[in-house]
Amino acid sequence: MDYNLLIGGSAGQGIDTLGTLLEKVLQRCSYSIFSNKDYMSRIRGGHNFIQIRFSTKPVYCHKSTLDFLVAFDEITVKEHQDRLTEDGIIFADEDLRERIGEAHRKVIYLPVKKGAKEVGNPKVFTTVFLGALIRIYDLDLKIGKKVLGKYFKDEILEVNHKAILQGYEINMDHFSIAKPEEQEQKILINANQGIALGAMAAGVSFYSAYPMTPSTSIMNFLASNQREAKIVVEQAEDEIAAINMAIGASYAGIRSMTGTSGGGFSLMTEALGLAGITETPLVVANVQRPGPATGFPTRTEQSDLSFILTASHGEIPRMITVIRNAEEAFYKTAKAFNLAEKYQVLVIILNDQYLADANQTINPYNFDKVAIERNLDNGEGYDVGEYKRYQFTEDGISPRIVPGMVKGQTVLSDSDEHDENGNITESAEVRVKMVEKRMSKLSMLEKEVEEPWYMGSEEPETLLVGWGSTYGVLKEAVETLNHEGVSVGALSFGDLYPLPRKAFNEKRKYAKKTINVEQNYTGQLAKLIRQETGISFDESILKFDGRQIDLEEVIARVKEVI
Predict the structure, then answer these.
(1) How many C-beta atoms surround the C-beta of residue 230 within 10 A?
(2) 448, 467, 491 - which closes a domain
(3) Are 220 and 344 part of one and the same domain?
(4) In a domain? residue 320
(5) Are 194 and 259 in contact (CB under 8 A)?
(6) What pLDDT shows up at residue 381?
(7) Which of the four, 107, 308, 358, 559, has the lowest number of CB atoms within 10 Å?
(8) 421, 459: one domain
(9) Domain boundary among 448, 465, 489
(10) Residues 44 and 145 in one domain
(11) Are residues 360 and 402 in the same domain?
């Protein structure tokens, strides 16, 4: 059994505080949670909301239909009351009674602001609301108090304890909410935090970035833990500086990373070529948002893939991978560092605003599963001055020495085309050999990429194909359609380039229709698959309004197509 709650209001009203506290209480009560945010690019005003889906069974995405609506203002009721189920309920402060007026669903008015004034601090009305919701859902008040202790201290904690009790004691009946049978503890985390933790597990020592929504939370997480993790986090003056700092740090032998979004990645394109031609290992996270230009700064999209495939003039080898959920974010990021260093290449990790801000309950990360695999030469066996940074080797990967660390050896590196020693060259013969040397790494990366995850009927009549953040909705849509007797399967791509093909070729031979499901206008994954295989899709389900496609949309569109 699952329940869908929306908390809505304007920026600055405290909806984020209530959402965060309620999610933590539900998590500690062993519910499975998937929450996502919709917020405007402003500090105050506008209309923002948080959707919290909680269930006694695992959930992987948000849903459009709502069971409960917590309204901090009348706009929330007007905007979302039509999404409520027939038995759906609206909770609002009693001060909104006159402004809400006639509602299509049942409204329960709560004296939360009045309760906050009674405990001596009007600002804690969100905690009063939390106490009321704990009572309504028959949750454990002790857990609520413990959660408050994680966020507040001293006198502020004391007044919040009074506030949660004030809300809990509001005279009302509780609703019959199913209780989880298993009391297993999960962690509550978003994909950007997963990326940051994966980088830490992989031994990142330097992270440089310029703040840009929705990638900033990666930097914030690393910065808040940099002392304990012994990481240098540098807020650069712009994205050009950020990526060049990361390249310099990697050249000096430490694991480095940079992250950005949208136009910030555009600014990095020349430096991507620098990393490519100098064969400097580098991990870059691009958390997508709708463009072009400033676009929708706080919304979501999957529209950067086509650009990233060839970003930088000239041709360089690269690996492109995308996050599908918060659990994968950790392990995939750690792997990216190992691959970047193993093959001395650029690895680009894609995420998007939806998963960057979506909190999910997942199994705790297992740091023991992450192995740090360095690829540095210790300089043994070289005569003085013999070392060649770009030596032609059988596998195309040259020995890599940290500058200044091996006595008698000089490391030369240049953004011009160069010979084996690193000296600038105009030789056509050397140019051809160097390009072939660098690009040959793609064939090695082809052996490293993982096939897409498959869900659904073994021999599907309809095959859905998506990538990244559409994984959760595809998984649940396939489960629902299969339960209704519809023969459907779905492939969710994680590694995108070089493109893994085996699973797609295997499943498409059964399908009467193939449908790509993407958050962009042009069907960028479908274009990549057509480019690499010559195979076209029969239909497309595309969404590009800045909002994530939901479960009901996918199910309805698939039924329409078939």
Answers:
(1) 10
(2) 448
(3) yes
(4) yes
(5) no
(6) 79
(7) 559
(8) no
(9) 448
(10) yes
(11) no
Sign of the four-CA dihedral 150, 152, 157, 162:
negative
Is 193 in the same domain as 282?
Answer: yes
Task: Estimate the crossing angle of helix 15-28 against helix 125-136, to 10 degrees.
Answer: 40
Q: Are residues 444 and 458 in the same domain?
A: no
pLDDT digits (tens, 9 = 90+) for 174-208: 788 999 987 778 999 999 999 999 999 999 999 99
Q: Are residues 418 and 465 in the same domain?
A: no
- Name the stretches of the chain with pLDDT < 70: none
Q: Using alpha carbons, list the distances in angstroms from residue 190 to 51, 201, 332, 389.
A: 14, 17, 14, 40
Is the CB of residue 147 less than 8 Å from the CB of residue 22? no
With H, G, I as helix, E, B as strand and everything else as coil, classify residue 216.
helix
- Residue 283, amino acid: V
Predicted confidence at residue 168, as pLDDT, reads 96
H-only helix segments in 169-268 = 191-201, 216-224, 226-229, 239-251, 262-267
What pLDDT is recorded for position 40?
87
State pLDDT tens for residues 46-59.
899 999 999 999 99
CB within 8 Å of 142: residues ≥ 6 apart = none
Are 302 and 524 in contact, with CB atoms under 8 Å apart? Answer: yes
Entry pTM: 0.96
Phi and psi at residue 271, to the nearest 5°: -70, -25
Per-residue pLDDT, 295: 95
Q: How many domains does the chain have?
A: 4
Note down the domain range covering 406.
376-448
